[in-house]
């Protein structure tokens, strides 16, 4: 099913999504990759506040290429989500509602998605030029020294994603491969 | 004897880094275009169409095809009658990478130390493979490699008794394990034989062979064709979201090996299988 949705996500929106839905997201999302996740978890260990509010927000696993003059961002496609699996259940338990990446997630992440009524979306990997066209503004909000791995606040308009793991724990990577596999 | 100033190498590598990150070679372009009509899944077709749009935007607006503009892997095939002047060869190559990644607005993705992980901020150093050939020219291949697919690559030290079936199973295992992580449709580079490191370099080099060119060795050619068919029947599909286009090609290179061994390396590349080739 094709859906249009605003970010941040409400609890009802997140729960209404199903594995396989094609979703266009409009609103505010945040980027974070490996290095930013490590820093956020270290900050939590020290009882510090995070540079972004997790509740209802979506994190996009993405580190862009540099923007040319006059453009908000460079190439901006998803990175492999499983590298964030170690940190993700903790962030979901603190209110994170959605993630955009590509590739498989661990069982612990899937369980945390179900436990928290969250959702894991895939954007098309390797389509960074196309995806950059749906990003209308980008601003570094933390960890500037990490360069491409800094946390950025993005304003997106009809950013195209596909629901892979929904709040019930259905996983498109497993069901779709079974549908088309003939060996 | 031909004398080449290393600045010529720097200039070419600078341009090739930018070129490879914005345009695919014509064989890759063609294979991706043909995949759209062959794909059986509707969502798969939609994703393949998005990849077509992505390539068009990348070329027209000079936005890198993928934000992971890779670690620069460079093959230098140097004729033995070539003399370099004007400086150190390796420094000249790295200077070309430095300039290309800065001037081309490419992402700097290299860390100085694998464990301390401080970004070098200019995407150097490159990984350089030197090969001596006859003649007096230098063939430069610049192949920026993204790590979504690099991380899913494998080396298997098989036993001779594992034979042909063992090799095929190893390749299929690597592809199935890679699944959606490697941004399919993939290109699968394989090295069979040699030693531990030789098969890995062969697998990497195999990715630079045109996807529409099969091995000249009849049994290897058959393996390439059979494996492509079996990989496309795994159901993984474009983006790993199901479909019949999981790989565009399986390119296999072979080399003599030891009586006790059967090394197999599988270097997986995403659909952004980038390389630029020039001869100077």
Q: Can you describe what's shown?
A:
- The complex is a heterodimer of chains A (183) and B (280).
- The model of chain A has no long low-confidence stretch (mean pLDDT 97).
- Chain A is built from six helices and seven strands; from the N terminus they run βαβαβαβαβαββα.
- Chain A has helices spanning 11-16, 34-45, 88-93, 107-116, 128-132, 172-180, and strands at 2-7, 22-31, 58-60, 98-101, 119-122, 135-142, 151-165.
- With 183 residues, chain A is of the alpha/beta class.
- In chain A, strand 4, helix 4 and strand 5 form a beta-alpha-beta unit.
- Chain B is an alpha/beta fold and 280 residues long.
- Chain B has helices spanning 6-22, 26-38, 42-61, 89-103, 147-150, 163-178, 196-206, 218-232, and strands at 2-5, 71-79, 82-85, 127-133, 138-145, 154-158, 186-194, 247-257, 262-269, 276-279.
- Chain B has a four-stranded mixed beta sheet with strand order 4-2-5-10. In chain B, strands 6-9-7-8 form a four-stranded mixed beta sheet.
- The longest helix of chain B is centred in the N-terminal third of the chain and has 20 residues, at 42-61.
- The interface between A and B is large, with 48 and 52 residues.
């Amino acid at each position: 099913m094709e859906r249009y949705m605003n970010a941040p996500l409400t609890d009802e929106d997140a729960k209404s999504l199903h594995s396989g839905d094609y979703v266009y997201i409009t609103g505010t999302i945040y980027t974070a990759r490996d290095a930013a996740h490590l820093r956020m978890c270290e900050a939590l260990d020290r009882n510090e506040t995070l540079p972004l509010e997790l509740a209802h927000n979506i994190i996009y696993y993405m580190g862009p290429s540099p923007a040319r003059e006059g453009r908000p961002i460079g190439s901006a496609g998803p990175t492999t989500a499983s590298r964030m699996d170690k940190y993700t259940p903790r962030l979901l338990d603190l209110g994170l509602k959605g993630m955009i990446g590509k590739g498989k997630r661990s069982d612990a992440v899937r369980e945390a998605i179900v436990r928290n009524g969250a959702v894991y979306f895939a954007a098309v990997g390797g389509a960074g030029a196309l995806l950059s066209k749906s990003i209308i503004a980008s601003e570094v909000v933390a960890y500037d020294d990490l360069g491409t791995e800094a946390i950025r606040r993005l304003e997106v308009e009809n950013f195209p994603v596909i629901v892979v793991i929904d709040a019930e724990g259905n996983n498109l990577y497993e069901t779709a491969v079974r549908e088309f596999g003939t060996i | 004897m031909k004398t080449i100033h290393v600045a010529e190498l720097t200039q070419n590598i600078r341009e090739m880094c930018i070129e490879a990150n914005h345009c695919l070679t014509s064989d890759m372009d063609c294979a991706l275009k043909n995949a759209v009509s062959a794909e059986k899944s509707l969502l798969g077709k939609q994703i393949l169409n998005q990849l077509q749009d992505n390539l068009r935007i990348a070329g027209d607006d000079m936005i890198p095809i993928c934000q992971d503009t890779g670690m620069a892997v460079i093959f230098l095939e140097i004729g033995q009658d070539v003399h370099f002047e004007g400086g150190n060869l390796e420094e000249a190559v790295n200077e070309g990478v430095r300039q290309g990644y800065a001037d081309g607005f490419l992402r700097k993705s290299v860390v100085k130390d694998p464990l301390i992980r401080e970004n070098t901020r200019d995407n150097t150093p490159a990984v350089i493979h030197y090969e001596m050939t006859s003649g007096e020219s230098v063939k430069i291949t610049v192949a920026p490699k993204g790590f979504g697919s690099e991380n899913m690559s494998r080396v298997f030290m098989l036993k001779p008794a594992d034979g042909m079936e063992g090799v095929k199973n190893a390749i299929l295992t690597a592809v199935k394990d890679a699944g959606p992580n490697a941004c399919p449709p993939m290109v699968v580079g394989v090295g069979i034989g040699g030693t531990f490191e030789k098969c890995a370099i062969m697998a990497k080099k195999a990715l630079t062979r045109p996807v529409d060119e099969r091995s000249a060795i009849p049994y290897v050619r058959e393996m390439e064709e059979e494996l492509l068919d079996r990989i496309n029947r795994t159901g993984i599909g474009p983006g790993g979201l199901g479909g019949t286009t999981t790989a565009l090609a399986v390119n296999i290179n072979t080399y003599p090996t030891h009586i006790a061994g059967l090394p197999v390396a599988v270097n997986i590349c995403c659909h952004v299988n980038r390389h630029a080739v020039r001869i100077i």
